[in-house]
Amino acid sequence: MNQLAIHGGSPVRTAPFPTWPIFGEEEERLILEVVRSGKWGGSNRNKLPELEAQFAAIHGAKHAVTVVNGTIGLTIALQACGVQSGDEVIMPPYTFIATASCALLFGAIPVFVDVEPNSMLLDPELVEAAITPKTKAIIAVHIAGAPANMTRLKEIADKHGLRLIEDAAQGVGAVWDGQPVGALGDFGSFSFQSGKNVTSGEGGILLTNDEALADMAWSLTNVGRIRKGAWYQHEHIGWNLRMTEFQAAILLAQLTRYEEQQRLRDRNAKWLAAEVGTIEGLRTMKLDSRVTNHAHHMFMFALEEGAAGGIGKEEFIRRMNTEGIPVHPGYITLNQNAAVLKEIEKWTGERRETSCPVSEKFAEREGLWLHQNVLLGDEQAMSDIMTALRKVMQGN
Ligand SMILES: *Cc1c(COP(=O)(O)O)cnc(C)c1O
């Protein structure tokens, strides 16, 4: 009766989880407005300034610059901060590859510093030991939507004269110690790629409270022009990295849905965390009490080594997936990513092996994800997740 689906039993769930993106009349109305206006982008900006103002306001930031995507947003943030080829950038290894490739695009060198075991967020207490005369910046990643310890990271950055950039690709609406993420350091970079909690298929935005940095980011994104300069006046080498009006229209519509979706993700994530916490062999994230608001891009949890009869992470995921629950294995730790290591070697002439045991263990053997769309499921969906987890942990 309670036989595992992989052994021929019936799966816990056959109904699908909510698909993503979610859209409706508001997206259609605004996109049609853009089409009919004939003003689609470039210097024709109607929806883009509205989006920039709204997104900055949500995060309590003074300035916003829209860009083509989150990867380029991070690259522009580094460059606007004066980071150059050969400079070192401290970052956590448990993140999407773009956190590293944004630096490697122009020869800045990622230096991986391990994450905290309870949160998978950059461990501030390990940062100082990694600082060298070449270090120019720290990238804090709000992984899964949980804000990193910006208080401590800012102290360290200030003490050593380093720039602090938030990779907030997963952190729309996250709040650290009462303050929204995005402008807590020099720049915050957000992504609107198709899987993100607010999406226009592709896109990105930079936030900052520093006007000079905002102007520089704008210039680099607008072929080196300056805001009040002439059309063919290029003061810097920059590129056309602009977002279109179509994307801004979709994002303005998406933002009308954001708060309600976030409330649902929050309710479900809290319920799941409490329930998962009761199962021996599974572990949930334990976040700092200063995490005021979690953006819930993912629900992360861990299968402890040896649990579930020692079947291991891969088999555990296969069993959960066969029960109808889309559990995902998550990242490969970047300090062991062959492409990243090869690119670092290309720029430095050195093979730089770093050890990040917490990230390595979570990535290889323990870490499990449920994506944000799963967190938009109803009560039955959440209860199915728990039924399947209990069933798979029990075996048979
Ligand atoms: C999605 C993501 C990025 C990159 O954003 P794109 O818009 O896909 O370029 C960077 N960092 C993290 C942590 C991400 O999740």
Describe this structure as you would to a colleague:
The chain is of the alpha/beta class. It folds into two domains: 25-254, Type I PLP-dependent aspartate aminotransferase-like (Major domain) (Aspartate Aminotransferase, domain 2, 3-Layer(aba) Sandwich); 258-394, Aspartate Aminotransferase, domain 1, CATH 3.90.1150. Helix content is 39%, strand content 14%. The protein is built from 13 helices and 13 strands. The strands form three sheets. A seven-stranded mixed sheet has the order 1-9-8-5-4-2-3, with helices on both faces. Strands 7-6-11 form a three-stranded antiparallel sheet, with no helix packed on it. Strands 10-12-13 form a three-stranded antiparallel sheet. β6 and β7 (179-180) form a beta hairpin. α2 (47-58) packs parallel to α8 (245-276) and α3 (70-80) crosses α4 (98-104). It is globular, with a radius of gyration of 22 Å. 49% of the residues are buried. The model has no long low-confidence stretch (mean pLDDT 97). The structure holds pyridoxal-5'-phosphate. Pyridoxal-5'-phosphate binds next to α3 and α4.
